[in-house]
Amino acid sequence: MRPALLNRVYRIIGSRPFIFFSVIMLFKSYLAWLVIFEDTPFWAPLISEIPFIWAIFCLIEWFSSKRKLTAYLIVNLALTGIFFSVIMYYKYYGVIVTWRALEQVNQVTAVKNSVFSLIDPYFLFIFSDIVVFIYLLINGRRKHGAGYRLLRICNRPNERRGVMTLIFALSVVICVMNILPHTASMNERVQASEMGILNYEAYSLIADEEYELIEKSEITQDAIDELKGVHRPVRAPYQGWAKGKNLIVIQMESLQNFLIGLEVEGQEVTPNLNALVRQGFYFPDFYHMVGQGNTSDAEYVVNTSFYIPPQGAATMRYVDRRLPSLPRLLKVRGYETMTFHTNTVEFWNRTELYAALGWDRYYDDRFFGKEDAVFFGASDDVLYRKTAEELERAHREGKPFYAQVVSMTAHHPFTLPKDKIRLDLSDKYSGTFVGDYLQAQHYADEALGRFIADLKARGVWQDSLIVLYGDHVGLPVYSLNNREQELLAELIGHEYGYADMINVPLIMLSDGALYPKRFEGRLGGQVDILPTIAGLMDIPLSGYIHFGQNLLVEQDNLLPQRYYLPSGTLITGKSLFIPGEGYADGTLYPLSGEPGDESVVTEDAFERALRLLQLSHSYVRQLPERSPDEAPQAMLPEPDDEAEAEKTAKTEPDDAPPVEDADDAAEHETEGEEAES
């Protein structure tokens, strides 16, 4: 750039930085709003974001007689960072990020592939001015010394303090008027759109305080059951059908229910899961209940039957307590308890979570090693092979066990090594989340098939109750572009919506105990897994506070949701309800995806759901603190096992033996129905 032109640019910026940076920030506000909010009026960012920005700029004009440009650039960078963080967080979770999420910023580096995959190139325009400024300053200083002249221009004291005072006062008044009428809004997205993103972030910082706790004496199982509409039969159906068996809980990474039975271009995506569905209890109307902690939240909810916290991940907010849990319930009945996960135990603070839940021992990356690594650790094949060996050892000892197995290879963004890609998909799936997701889940299903065959060969399968479910959404609505939305609509037969997004499968199997049965219309969520298992294994829950219900008994349900969908969201009947500022302006979505198929959600149900969330949080926060000495044993590989793992790293079979349908499925079904009646 020629020196004369460069100096002119510097003079324009330096003489009117207030106006110049206001225009820049208005552009960035529009970019954030267009990504997050639908049907953004052209005036909305102007009246919602600019007053906040002007208030800060006025402070610069007042107090920065020196290095004024530096102050503007710092503020510009900080506000840009906020807008960009809000965009990226929304693209995955569908909620507006607050400062609480910064508690988990150390987890971002571990999931950088997932984060980068969500970035559309045009998002980076938000940083374009910063790049230009850096270039101008460096280039001007090096070639012409103009960078210093710019600084000197901007270092002049402001002679219009009266004008700045007026602008500041008006800006603050407008900010307050934007915030105060909307503080009671349930929906964070609506709240942010009414307040403005920057006002919402400021309000969340100022207003963040501990929720008022309900007295522990008021938190009884009768009170919870009354809110949920739960009844207690004298003898529940299927009670004790799996009593005394081992328990193996398999948590499948990002597994959504629409995959069950799905064929793509003549190929079954999950043939092994499809076979399992035909062998045991299958709940197609089942929903995740996780939050910011995703997979770790699923582990928490399933093993406690409590809801996630109002802010942050359960692994950060609740692990200072001695949590009542499924591992503890089974340990007092003589069970060994263990959990398997190929990532480092420090990820999402699982070290503390596992201690709080009372596991006997855990297996993490130190046990599984770096063999056949994908994303965060060893592949599902390695996970399942080494886990099967450990379960066989436990089985031979003759003591019953509870094992939780957490798969990982099908993690977002679903980019597998070429040797694990099996589906032959057409070009329309190339370069899409949908195509990569189908490939990842096909591999996960294949590895699961090998695991099942291995458990059967080792004699473990026959003596166990197997519970398998998806941990959380794989394809958030907010992460998909128009092309990907069209592909999903083509696959599932209707527009892909919020209900499809959080719908995950639940499958229960036990050789000789359970028969093939599809529980169509039996609404459930992850909080219901513990009481359902307790029923099958004849474990009394008297004295154990839980917020789930036995899905083998109850027909109706009430499922409050947090994260991925706004606070106050609930599922009941045939509908998913998302509030606006409150109940009155909420929206109903049919669970089936077919317009007109939804049922009414009453205000009473809405209030009861909120009360359940409040009871759960109050109960957990008033539990006794956990002793720091209470910790599970970290399991490490035997030296011989470690050497053998290196030798066999590349010897996994390419094809999984399919899970065979039970030959006597019809016979079992008839017998089971007779027993049930």
Description:
It is a single chain. The protein starts with a helix and ends with a helix. Helices cover about 45% and strands about 10% of the residues. The longest helix is centred in the N-terminal third of the chain and has 26 residues, at about 70-95. Helix 17 links the parallel strand 6 (about 335-340) and strand 7. Helix 10 (about 190-195) crosses helix 11 (about 195-205). It is globular, with a radius of gyration of 28 Å. The protein has 26 helices and 19 strands. The chain has 2 domains: about 5-205, no CATH class; about 215-260 and about 280-420 and about 440-675, Alkaline Phosphatase, subunit A (3-Layer(aba) Sandwich), CATH 3.40.720. The chain is of the alpha/beta class and about 675 residues long. The strands form 5 sheets. The protein has a 9-stranded mixed sheet.
